[in-house]
From TrEMBL:
Signal peptide: none annotated. PROSITE patterns: VOC. InterPro entries: Glyas_Bleomycin-R_OHBP_Dase, Glyas_Fos-R_dOase_dom, VOC_core. Keywords: Dioxygenase, Oxidoreductase. It holds the Pfam family Glyoxalase. The keyword Oxidoreductase applies. The keyword Oxidoreductase applies. This is Glyoxalase/Bleomycin resistance protein/Dioxygenase superfamily. One of its GO terms (molecular function) is dioxygenase activity. Residues 100-218 form the VOC domain.
Amino acid sequence: MRPADDPALPPAVEPGPTLRELVWGVERAADLAILADRLGPAARREGEGLHSRDPTGLALGFRVMAREAAPVRLRQRNQGDHRGRVNERLSAYGSPPALRIVHCAYNIPRAANEAALAFWCGPLGFKPVDKVLDTGTFLQAEGDVEHHNFFLCFRPDRAGINHIAVELWDFDAVMEAGNRMIEAGWKESRRPGRHRLGSNVYRFVHAPCGGRLEFVADMDRMDKDWQTRVWEKNPGHNIWMIRSSGPDPAGTGD
Ligand SMILES: [Fe+2]
């Protein structure tokens, strides 16, 4: 995060705090050369990286990223006759680590959607996983298996940041991370639940750097055999969402 008036930042596509440059990691320097070739005059080299803009003006960066393997932590589970965890108690994660930024969701006015899709699916090589004709398009980066790494989300008035999603270990980690943010004074922006497209559990809080922050776990993964699904209407945002029968101001459940 940097101050909005930092002269080193690319111009903003919307007023207020927002995403000023979206930087993508690539595996090898050769990948940068391929992207530079595909983007042609729309890209410029700077230092070790490559820079461009999408059709809405959003600044994009590409650089070789030495990605460290995220620590996998799978809790053993008990269910019926299955005894996965015996003589062992669970404890809170406390401060579960972010495994990685797993996707960015970007608001796109409908009139600008086709040009944006042509850019992201053309020279950038993204693949639509789910195309929802009244909502937006979930796009997967070339070579990845996540349900989406970028989501072009319809919004009538302007392009700009919608949210950045961070992957955590599991459901408990997502709930605990949200609690920690709320304890620190951040505001939750929707009730926790599990998405229908992507299947991930989620928790959203408003972010001071613009848009929202989404904590995510257990998202669908689609490999190269996945065929794009086209939905006339959004099949629904959630498989389930937390409902409450009434306020519990103390939050103790007593
Ligand atoms: Fe998301």
